[in-house]
Structures are given as structure tokens and as C-alpha cells.
Design a protein that fits this description.
188 residues; mainly alpha; globular
Length: 188
Amino acid sequence: MNLPNKITLCRIIATPVFLFFLMPGWFGQFLGIDQWGRYAATLIFVLAALTDMVDGRLARKYGQVSELGKFLDPIADKLLVTAALIALIKTDNLSVWMVFIIIAREFIVSGFRLVAASQRVVIAADRLGKIKTVIQIVAIVALLLRNFPVSLITDFPLGMVLMYAAVVMTIISGINYIIKNFEILNLK
């Protein structure tokens, strides 16, 4: 297994660790994790999200793009973001409809990719999809930090505003993805 794939695997492993610190449950509360766990969870989430850029760049730079990497990378991304969004429904009352839209878009894109793969076509992530991912990650971090340090100055709901932006960008990138790849479905 090459280094980029190991980094991707670390992102997958980081997801349940992130959840453990964010939602420690009885065992974590017994250890006192609930006091500082949210900050540890945020740090783990940020580091895991950054590995997404690192693994791809390393794979391309050193010619280590592999089928395993192409398979694991989108799974790792979706696991991390989905886990965070679902946890935020419980911890911060994030709206279920927002999470549903984001997850639904991922199912649709994954469906298109499966059909494309069956036709031996690879659909690469496009610019809008990458922008969507960045906005989602920044919104999640803002929610995890409960708008800190902005909250020291104002009670402007930065995290929620960013999450609305993420939902809008999710819809835009999803529609763009469907339009660009609709011919893959071969509806005749």
C-alpha cells in the first residue's frame, strides 16, 4: 500500500475517533472527555480534512494514483463529512433537511459514478464539487467551534450562515454534476 493510500486510510480511521471525542457517551464522560472533547474532535476533524488534499497531491506528484486510492478517497471524504453532519444534528440541533440535501447529493453522485464505472468511464471531481467540499468543511468547523472566535465579538451565527452556503453550493454542484454527466445514463 502506497503512502497516499495510507493517508486516506488514516482519514477513515480518524472518523470514529472524531465521533468518540465529539459524542463521548458514558465512558468518555467518565474519563472527563466531555470537558475538552469537542476541541479535540474539531482538531481531529481539521487534520483529517487536510489529509484529503495531501493524499491526492502526493499520489499525483509521485505517480502513485491507484485503483484502491480512487475507491477509498471518496469513501473517506463522505464518511468524515457525513459523520460530522449527523453528529451535529444531535449536538447542535443542525437541521435534518440540510443534512439530507447534502447526503442525497452524495448518493446521486455516487450512483452516477457507479453507472460510469460500469461503462469504464471515470468521472473526476470538478471545481464546483471541490468548492462545495471546502465550504462544507469550513461550515462544520465553525459549528464544531460554536462560532469561536467570532462569538467573542458578536453573536452572528457564522456556522449556520456557512452551512446554508454549503447547502446552496451542494445543490448547485449537484445540478451541475447531473447536467454534465446525464448522458452516462443512456436513457433511450
